[in-house]
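Worked Example 4.2. Consider the chain below.
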Amino acid sequence: MDRDDPISTFFPNQEDVDLYAVLTLTSSATPDAIKKAYRRLALLHHPDKHANASDAARHEAALRFQQVGFAYAVLSDGTRKERYDRTGRTDEGFEMAGEDGWEAYFADLFEGVTKGRLDELKKEYQGGCGCNS
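Applying the procedure from the previous section yields the following structure tokens:
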């Protein structure tokens, strides 16, 4: 597993992690099913429920609680879920750029940015600060 992928933090020493399986779901689960599974498992593994357990049991419950929370964080976010479904990864590095690269990614973010528009903004900015250069 890639050490840059946050999944390795929550699932140490595991080569293959299925976030749907963590929530006892399949990849066809609806957003409502994901939320229900998360709530059920979060209550089951919440550290407060294991306060009187052995140190090992408390540690295991806390780790499981974090894993369930991480799985929910990824699968409940449409963008992160789509990326996970497509790549099996949870990092948000270069993969965020998509297949068309960073230029297309930023063009989508900042729709309508052109050289002419940038020149207009530059003139507005410089005119507003008294810097007529």
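The two ends are 53 Å apart (CA to CA). The chain has seven helices and no strands. Compare this with Example 4.1 before moving on.
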